[in-house]
Amino acid sequence: MQIYFMRHGLAADKKLPIYLNNDAERPLTEEGIKKSIIVAKGLKKIVKNFDIIFTSPLKRALQTASIVAEEFNLKTKIKVINELLPGTNQDDFIKLLINLKEFKKVLFVGHEPDLSEKLSNLLNTDPKIFKLKKSCVCRIDIKIMQNKIKSKIIWIIQPSQFKALRRKK
Predict the structure, then answer these.
(1) Rounded to whole angstroms, how far apart are CA atoms 52 and 109?
(2) Which of the four pLDDT bands, split at 50, 70 and 90, describes residue 103?
(3) Residue 2 burial by CB count (10 A; 0-12/13-18/19+): exposed, middle or buried?
(4) Topology of 2-167 in CATH?
(5) Which pTM does this prediction carry?
(6) Which of 7, 109, 127, 166 is such that its CA lies 20 to 30 A from the CA of 47?
(7) Tens-digit pLDDT profile for residues 12-70
(8) Are the CB atoms for 43 and 135 separated by under 8 Å?
(9) Which of 136, 142, 92 is nearest to 113 (CA)?
(10) What is the C-alpha to C-alpha distance for residues 95 and 41, in angstroms, rounded to an integer?
């Protein structure tokens, strides 16, 4: 299975008074929307399709997932899951993956440092190795055998690289 981790785009400043007690409602900024669109278009050139998109319920992740879904014509295949909320248990995410055997290409849209922790956990590496920038995408391939996961990293692409990719015909 190919799994893709995408960090949400640039969101409104969490220090703004309106979001001090309501982090879940922070939306993408205009720049965050623009970069997410560029990444979605670049991703379409590389990936071609996803079977399903899972996203955190937080507004900025849901907006990012919606932008990608629109580019891939997958608006009906977005699933909001709590396993992508900040601070959730990594074991719950592994259990989720084990139950996704029917899918070939899955996109997960979430937050840092949790996505990097999920990557590190799957790849059995130090969590400090990965830090996904906003709108960054990472692909890893996994094999699920007898409720165990074997994985390898394939690539990490930064938003600026998607921009360059977009220029190529």
Answers:
(1) 11
(2) very high
(3) middle
(4) Rossmann fold (3.40.50)
(5) 0.94
(6) 127
(7) 999 888 898 899 999 999 999 999 999 999 999 999 999 999 999 999 999 999 999 99
(8) no
(9) 136
(10) 31
Task: Name the amino acid, one letter, at 19.
Answer: Y
Token pair, residue 165, equals 């990719």
Instruction: With CA atoms as reference, report the closest residue to 133 among 36, 29, 23.
Output: 36
Q: How many residues appear in the chain?
A: 169
Dist CA 118 CA 109 (whole Å): 12
User: What band does 132 get if pLDDT is binned at 50, 70 and 90?
Assistant: very high
* CA 3 vs CA 12, 20, 32, 45, 93: distances in Å: 28, 33, 23, 16, 13
pLDDT for 147 beyond 80: no
Structure tokens at 60: 């900025």
Question: For the chain, which residues make up each domain, given as ranges?
Answer: 2-167
